[in-house]
Amino acid sequence: MRDNLKELVKITKTLKLLYVEDDGQVRDSTLEMLNNFFSDIVIAIDGKEGIEKFNEHCFDLIITDMQMPNLNGIEMLKKLNTSVPALVLSAYDFESQVSKYGVHDYILKPLESEQFILALSKVVEKIK
């Protein structure tokens, strides 16, 4: 497992991440974990800003909250209509909705490191 984690970090450090989260406290705590995996993270505070940031940069992965003001995570992904892999985070179980929109994995909050690592590993396999 330790070697797999090292390999995962080696790969993710080369990826550019768009992280979309409206709740400042959740964003800060999640960023602590994300910073262990990604060197290049662009942050947006809602789906509308997420679209703006997406159009300004070239991303390898999107991690987005589900429920946000202005434009939720699923609506944002529908508007982006991109092949960039996405992980959706939510405090509520919306799994039936997210599977329709090309979401590669769905993680319930609060984010647990093992659950996140497993989801991230699956997505990275598709990116490689």
From TrEMBL:
Residues found modified as 4-aspartylphosphate: D65
Key word Phosphoprotein present: yes
Domain called Response regulatory: residue spans: 16-124
Keyword Phosphoprotein tagged: yes
GO-annotated biological processes: phosphorelay signal transduction system
Keywords from the named record: Phosphoprotein
Classification via Pfam families: Response_reg
UniProt-listed InterPro entries: CheY-like_superfamily (IPR011006), Sig_transdc_resp-reg_receiver (IPR001789), ST_Response_Regulator (IPR052048)
Protein's recorded name: Response regulator
Organism of derivation: Candidatus Sulfurimonas marisnigri
